[in-house]
């Protein structure tokens, strides 16, 4: 399902294409269909069609719950998922969110009954993957329930469907018949069809006894979805999604931007290495009555914000869906190049500014270490590293501020008496 209106529309479009292509590689014996709102860009629709995907264009369903106190606007159009019941040309539909990673073929799901879903939460089933039998009667009844304001705890598809199928928890577990026949009724799906990524992070391996370990889902914070370049090694499974993208879709749309940024950063580093720092420190002032302490405080604030900008600007301009093995080196290159500007402008010692940079590299190595016994040991290792690294970063910040104080007292920055014979007084 695709719709527009969130800050992450493009990322979900990419995720949808990756998932659809991965299903093709797994030889799924079914049509691949995307329910897309009418405002999805035509180029995106055409790209999906070129991938062999059927696109069903629909009008956005009005969400009657958007005025609820706990309503999250990013779920405003998730009720479009109800259109799955209108696909009456199919006997069964497996409805999917785009943040699923398929580990193996799951065609047996088409043998399930009229409605089947997985309980990730002990009491509430998850709507990231569910099986349904299309029916216009059910679809019209759902629209009626929306119109009359059926109870919906979260105002999204999750709450509505949980309210519409309140007895699913009491239904039997789905086990596909060996003869391939389709079951009737409603069933609970084994957890292996919606393995919450958080289960992996605890043991750093899959150990789901209920059903085949077939599908991974990421119902986490939206900024930690697996397609973001910073998702790995922060979250170990982030690389799994990117490997699927590399195998199925590639990164041709992001590579030109990555190359342009890399060339710019290398150019900045070259210029700052060749530039003479003394030339970057010259300024002019007609009046010399400024307070030295005020200048020192101002320099400290400007320097602190400049260092912060050097480490944050590259993060936000890197294409979000690029591979982590491209994103992190580009981030480190960008932060190094901008830090070199700060070093030149304020005549700071390189190590005081780059301590944080080296700290980032160390943190990435600690998180990416592949031989932790389990997630608890990994978390403790990251905490221990942060505990040891924090004093060094603080000391580098203190030394940076001290360097600015010394800089003010140098002849190049000393506020001398006005020169009566000069039109300007120079500060170096």
TrEMBL record:
Pfam families: Mannosyl_trans3 (PF11051). CDD domains: GT8_Glycogenin (cd02537). Keywords: Manganese, Membrane, Transferase, Transmembrane, Transmembrane helix. GO terms for molecular function: glycosyltransferase activity. The keyword Oxidoreductase does not apply. The keyword Glycoprotein does not apply. SUPFAM superfamilies: Nucleotide-diphospho-sugar transferases. The chain crosses the membrane at residues 255-275, 295-318, 330-347, 354-373, 379-398. Belongs to the MNN1/MNT family. This is Glucuronosyltransferase PGSIP8. It comes from Sorghum bicolor.
């Amino acid at each position: 399902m695709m719709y527009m209106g969130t800050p992450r529309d493009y990322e979900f479009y990419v995720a949808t294409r990756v998932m659809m292509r991965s299903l093709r590689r797994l030889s799924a014996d079914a049509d691949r269909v995307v329910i897309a709102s009418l405002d999805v860009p035509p180029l995106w629709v055409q790209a999906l069609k070129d991938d062999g995907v059927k696109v069903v264009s629909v009008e956005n369903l009005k969400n009657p719950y958007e005025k609820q106190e706990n309503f999250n606007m990013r779920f405003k159009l998730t009720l479009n998922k109800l259109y799955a019941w209108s696909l009456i040309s199919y006997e069964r539909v497996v409805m999917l969110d785009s943040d699923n990673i398929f580990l193996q073929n799951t065609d047996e799901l088409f043998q399930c009954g009229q409605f089947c879903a997985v309980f990730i939460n002990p009491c509430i089933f998850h709507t990231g993957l569910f099986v349904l039998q299309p029916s216009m009667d059910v679809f019209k009844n759902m629209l009626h329930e929306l119109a009359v304001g059926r109870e919906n705890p979260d105002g999204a598809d999750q709450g509505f469907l949980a309210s519409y199928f309140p007895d699913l928890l009491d239904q039997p577990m789905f086990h596909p018949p060996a003869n391939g026949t389709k079951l009737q009724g409603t069933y609970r799906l084994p957890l292996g069809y919606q393995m919450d990524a958080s289960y992996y992070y605890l043991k750093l391996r899959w150990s789901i006894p209920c059903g085949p370990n077939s599908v991974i889902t990421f119902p986490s914070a939206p900024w930690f979805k697996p397609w973001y370049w910073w998702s790995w090694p922060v979250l170990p499974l982030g690389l799994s999604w990117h490997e699927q993208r590399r195998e199925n879709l590639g990164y041709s749309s992001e590579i030109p931007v990555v190359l342009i940024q890399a060339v710019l950063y290398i150019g900045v580093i070259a210029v700052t290495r060749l530039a003479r720092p003394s030339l970057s420190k010259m300024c002019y002032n007609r009046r010399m009555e400024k307070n030295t302490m005020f200048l020192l405080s101002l320099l400290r604030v400007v320097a602190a914000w400049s260092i912060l900008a050097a480490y944050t600007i590259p993060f936000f301009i890197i294409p979000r869906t690029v591979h982590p093995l491209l994103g992190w080196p580009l981030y480190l290159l960008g932060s190094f190049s901008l830090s070199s500007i700060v070093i030149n402008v304020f005549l700071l010692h390189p190590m005081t500014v780059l301590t944080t940079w080296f700290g980032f590299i160390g943190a990435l190595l600690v998180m990416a270490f592949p031989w932790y016994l389990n997630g608890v040991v990994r978390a403790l290792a990251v905490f221990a590293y942060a505990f040891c690294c924090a004093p060094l970063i603080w000391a580098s910040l203190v030394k940076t501020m001290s360097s600015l104080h010394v800089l003010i007292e140098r002849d190049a920055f000393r506020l001398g008496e006005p020169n009566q014979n000069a039109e300007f007084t120079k500060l170096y």
